[in-house]
Recover the amino acids of this structure.
């Protein structure tokens, strides 16, 4: 019984993840999510759409951070890391259904709802990405890696948003060029 | 009669602008907008919420670009321009109801609807801001001002989003520091 409840919970998370990432959070209804998950009784698993949004973001954050940490790049220095990082960002943005970063999107869709539980997870997630960047930059010998990681975050968020606004994949290239200058010793 | 129709149209635009900027585009209904504008027959002015969104963004873009162009700063060089520009961004982000940039928010809320008329206006607006930045940077003697304007756009969008995600106003300061380095001759 317990196991089945957990499986249903995962099925709902999975269905919600797919729908949220495709259409954003606001336009998807709990009924659509239940239909996609193939369940009828949802109340016992998630008490509200707000709680489900937070659970989906927490689930997606764990996956994303794990993916970042598992990813080993053979890079010789900071400039190579920057190029590899922004090339991947550009590859993602070039996908036909690219619709921006899920965590940024959640924060923006809920821009006037500061206390929303999903906002807290988006905040935590972006701090984790920043920490990962600082560690990677430090490993390649970049000085003041925490400050440089903040700059790379600025360029990353800017590139993700501008790729969306302009449907133009040259933004991560411009971001990489800027980041390469910023990480130089000075 | 004609004049009154135009006044009603402006009243609707004004009401929609206030509601959209506060709550985002998706959660506001046409009925709420009509109620706030104090009108009952709205169908003759805007055929759909999508058309109204586009009209509001076009109206807001005209105002915003005019404001940028009218704004004369006594700046001696590129670094001073950058400081003045990002200081203002930080002042905006420090407002209690800061909820990100309206045009970015529109693009993000409609991330999966590439052909939406409001997306076209957000795209046009951001290009106009970039052009203004390039002109201002060129005036202060910054070399390759168009390329530098793109970098300032990346840092601007990044700072606006990260202020929202983290409720932290130090991001425009980090952006200004990065921009000052990027505009140096090299």
């Amino acid at each position: 019984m317990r196991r089945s409840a957990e499986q249903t919970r995962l099925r709902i998370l999975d269905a919600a993840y797919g729908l949220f990432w495709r259409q954003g959070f606001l336009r998807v209804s709990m009924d659509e999510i239940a239909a996609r998950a193939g369940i009828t009784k949802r109340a016992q698993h998630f008490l509200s759409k707000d709680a489900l949004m937070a659970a989906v973001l927490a689930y997606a954050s764990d996956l994303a951070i794990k993916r970042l940490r598992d990813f080993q790049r053979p890079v010789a220095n900071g400039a190579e890391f920057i190029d590899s990082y922004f090339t991947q960002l550009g590859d993602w943005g070039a996908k036909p259904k690219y619709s921006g970063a899920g965590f940024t999107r959640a924060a923006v869709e809920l821009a006037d709802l500061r206390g929303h539980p999903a906002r807290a997870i988006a905040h935590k997630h972006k701090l984790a990405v920043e920490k990962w960047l600082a560690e990677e930059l430090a490993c390649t010998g970049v000085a003041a890696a925490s400050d440089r990681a903040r700059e790379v975050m600025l360029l990353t968020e800017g590139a993700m948003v501008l790729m969306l606004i302009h449907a133009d994949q040259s933004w991560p290239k411009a971001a990489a060029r800027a980041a390469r200058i910023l990480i130089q010793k000075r």
